[in-house]
Amino acid sequence: RWPRKVFSGVQPTGSLHLGNYLGAVRKWVEMQNAREDVTICIVDLHSITLPHNPPVLRENIFTMAATLLSCGIDPAKSTLFVQSSVPEHAEFNWILSSLTTMPRLAQLPQFREKSRLVKDVPLGLYVYPVLQAADIMLYKATQVPVGADQLQHIQLAQHLARSYNTRYGETFPVCQALIEDGNASRVLSLRDPSKKMSKSEANPKATINLCDPPDVIVQKIKKAVTDFTSDITFNPGKRPGVSNLVNIHALVTGQPIKSVVDEASTLDTAKYKERVADAVIEHLRPIREQILHHMGKRSELIYLLEVGAEKARQQAQHTLSDVKQRLGL
Ligand code: ADP
Ligand code: NA
């Protein structure tokens, strides 16, 4: 009954790493190019729930916008905008906050994890998942690509849509999570292949950023943790380090795992790492060039984001006026 609509939120953290790109952003671009209705929201209101640095946040919003455009998000096909430029997100957050309970929010794993790190827990951190539900529901999204750690938040959004529909009449689809960091697209840390590549990893050499220059990529891959066997095989359970390199190689070249391994049969790990680094550099080169290009044209970026915000506002206003009507506001 509901038209398929894809919505994804991304925090303005500045740059993205190879895992975010291969596991998430590249799939959004594929959906966009398959003519799906895709909305990407840079969720800056989520980024102020913990202490932050305002000039850095503003710069990170632009870097994220430039990065998404460079990865292939096309503002002519998709809606790309910044959350705080559509005030309906905050307004709808307030309305939804009356449809859930404090205990329900308190038990969410991400809140429990993050609130442990601060002495006085900000209310915004607590309400964060309600705002996330508002982001999704304003656009009546049906598919929400997220990492596995977001599953409970999507369940809250589902609960809020159902509660709302029961109380006020059928208005919102119950969205589905599309879990992104599944096996095939899961990129592991270069320093500890028992973990996924993540910006929260302290060692900067563990992650490849989309903006890393070629020589940095070569160094990081050269130092990637492998094992004491020198031939190239794919066995994620027994040889996670080498298998991660094979997987990255396959993902950036678009080749099947098997042919990547076959072609590497005469190489040892040191030589193979050079080959993987070349393939990653080749794949990221146009993206990095585009990021630098967009960053140098600030007024164009501002314009593109304003066009996106205008598209988003139209839908958000439409949804919210219906909501207010039904609530007697
Ligand atoms: P991080 O772990 O770096 O903080 P996030 O949790 O913000 O990344 O995830 C942003 C998106 O990128 C999510 O959709 C998630 O599925 C995807 N993602 C993050 N890390 C990886 C990874 N190592 N491999 C594949 N996908 C990833
Ligand atoms: Na994370």
From TrEMBL:
Subcellular location: Mitochondrion
Stated family: Belongs to the class-I aminoacyl-tRNA synthetase family.
Protein name: tryptophan--tRNA ligase
Source organism (scientific name): Drosophila ananassae (Fruit fly)
Lineage: Eukaryota, Metazoa, Ecdysozoa, Arthropoda, Hexapoda
Gene name of the record: Dana\GF24575
